[in-house]
């Protein structure tokens, strides 16, 4: 294949990017995105604060801009994200107890129902585990409603949109030796054993000096896959430049391709200048839209 999406399709996989609605009028940006990628994630526009700015008053205008652009260009959409401690609307941030639990479940239900039948996979719960040692849950207002909030969110999402794959998505779960990875692994194993609906694990894969790519990444992917879930690389970006960065991108692709249930890769933005990382050059295109070494190594590895 001569583009990322064509090359990924040879093995039946997708290659995606995060899209920001506010950049779609930039023709360099949108033409690269249209040419190279066939799975689209809204970078911010389907999050809780964007879709429910006031309680039980939903606003899908920005999410729909991205959804419509994707579908009009023949692409599929990953939904991101239904329940998360971050980017909550103000009204939710100080809620607790039963009120918050019900508000969260209502949000999951209403957003998943609105997009019913249209989303390839939803990140149902994002970043619920704590960093560091111990493998504990993140202390958030959602966790304080009871540690079963995650499975409650997954059950609500399944009821609202039975055809979407339901994913748990997180960062720092790519290194197999980390406690956080093992804790998420145990949760997914538990969900599968008890019939809690879960179809996929999203490895965000924001690689930088503090959490670098590790050669055990393939073990992480294959271990989750062996639980009977798909693995999707959902927010890939790799700090660095030149041949070292290019090699790491190739390693990530090779690790995914080695595991049949690793079904697709999404990078978190188009050009370096579109990245959420304030400084650095973590993506596949430079600020002018030129293909980087990392692009070529990724394409060749697919
Ligand atoms: C980031 C966006 O890229 C930024 O524009 C926003 O300001 C903050 O969120 N993990 C996630 C993503 O799941 O939603 C985050 O996206 C990056 C980290």
UniProtKB/TrEMBL annotation:
Limits of the GH10 domain: 4-301
Gene source species: Cellulomonas flavigena (strain ATCC 482 / DSM 20109 / BCRC 11376 / JCM 18109 / NBRC 3775 / NCIMB 8073 / NRS 134)
Similarity-based family: Belongs to the glycosyl hydrolase 10 (cellulase F) family.
Part of the whole protein covered: 39 to 340 of 820
Record-annotated active site: 235
Protein name: Beta-xylanase
